[in-house]
Amino acid sequence: MKKKNGYYPDNIIVTRNLTKKFGTLCAVNQMNLSVGNEIFGILGPNGSGKTTTVLMLTTLLEPTEGTAYICGYNIQEEPRKVRESISYVPQDMAVDVRLTGRENVEMFAELYGVKNPAERSEEVLQVLELSDRADEFAKVYSGGMRRRLELAQALVHNPRVLFLDEPTVGLDVAARKKIWEHIKKLRSAGMTIFVTTHYMDEADKHCDRVAIIDHGTIRAIDTPENLKRIISKDVISVSIKGSYMGIDLPGVRFALEEDDELIFYADSGDLALPLIKDALTAGGAIVTAMSLRKPSLDDVFLHLVGTEEDNRPFNLSTFRNVTGRRG
Amino acid sequence: MNPVLVYCRRDLIRWFRGKWGFISAMVMPAAWLIFVGLALPIRFTDHYIDFVTPGILAMTTLSASMTGGGLLIMDRMLGFFNKFLALPPPRESILFGKILVITIRGLIQTTVIFLIAFLLGARLYSPSQLLVTYLILFIFGGLLSSAATTLAIFVGEHDQYSAVNSMVTMPIFFTSTAMMPYDQMPEWLRAIAHINPLSYAIDGIRLVADGSIPFVQIGVLFALFIAVLTISVHVFRKTGL
Questions:
Q1: For the whole model, what pTM was predicted?
Q2: Less Cβ crowding at N or C end of chain A, within 10 Å?
Q3: Around Cβ B195, how many Cβ atoms within 10 Å?
Q4: A13-227: CATH homologous superfamily?
Q5: For chain B, which residues make up each domain, given as ranges?
């Protein structure tokens, strides 16, 4: 009863009112998710609760309220079963630099209790294109290679679910592309991938579904396409001299003022461009530049979350609770 | 392979390959043995090196254990810890792996001390004497590395731990019977030396060297080891780092 509670083949990760509080700070607030065989991205600014969510789902942190199931196993009641079904690659990029690539992977194979660690390690090293340099010390690996080595460690026991915390942070464009190629292959092979990121463009391009989270609360969950449809078909940005007095046009909505630009959402951008210019000019401003583009996840994000920077003082003990200490 | 051994092997390899940590761990106690064992003007015995060798053995175990406590903190700082905690084996195996590897490092260092002591002309131990001595050093090493890891979990930060480490190590050493026997000590020191765990290890090894088996010392050290290990597991589970 318990084990099958809420578990269907396409509900690999299910959270029920998942909540984590650190003192007065509510890091994750009543989160309800259901993730199947897909690349699921959780998108949010620093301190929005992404990592805390992952730490709870990987059994590194006890929820304050609510719970979650991974492959049907409850994260609090059957943490070992959960850990056998998942792999977790944290943000820090921790590989043992004094061990070779192969030794790094074989160590994890042994810790996961894989049947033939040497063979299986060779397999994953090949999949991640590291086998020709597997016997060099990880010290000489580039950032991208280290990340792939961590993926190799994570994949060595063939997990059902892979948790990646900011997998491409600090990597160059080519290395990022490669990582995402690997992630997509894994999804095609039937793995569920739960990834946190603050790179909108990557989430847009590579995730099947995206949850936008802010201050621990989910603001929207959908495919990137549907999320962009929340806004409108087109986004128009206008640079003006003088002040913006407001315009009223059908099918055009004023979104926000960012730096020196005004952002409008329009149902039909081509037609709206001249109308907006005329309206602004009539209002006494001088239009210096206009551009029309398709909405990106950035726009959705700004629309839902705003540009407000996190100004709360950096609290070391909270931070340590989030990143290090368990329960 | 047992996860405790996997964790232990990882740290051993890192230690050997880290070179300077390994070299320093070998040179430091040797320097103590040479400068203290051969150079101090001692009157209560003609063969001070025989007397001081057990003291240096225990001191080496002490410093090896205290240094080793830092391993756990480094693993947390560098992000290894969260990776390990998310793995299926029981989490305590991380702790036991650390305690084991620190103990083994101590035993390797004490072996070097033994060799140097014999080269410097200390009286040779018979195989059975060596066996009991190693048993004492193993239990004592387990006790100290459990204590050091507990302290490390408790203190939490690396620079803080080094400060605590240097604050703790020296007084423990000088309040033991490492440098002088009880009857040569001032009254106040004698009382402290009698309850210092380091003295138990040192007295035990000296008894072995004199041809008896130190059941009391081994018993006390073993009881302390189990007690501290229990506390260590408790603190580890509670804080989890």
A1: 0.86
A2: N
A3: 9
A4: P-loop containing nucleotide triphosphate hydrolases (3.40.50.300)
A5: 3-239
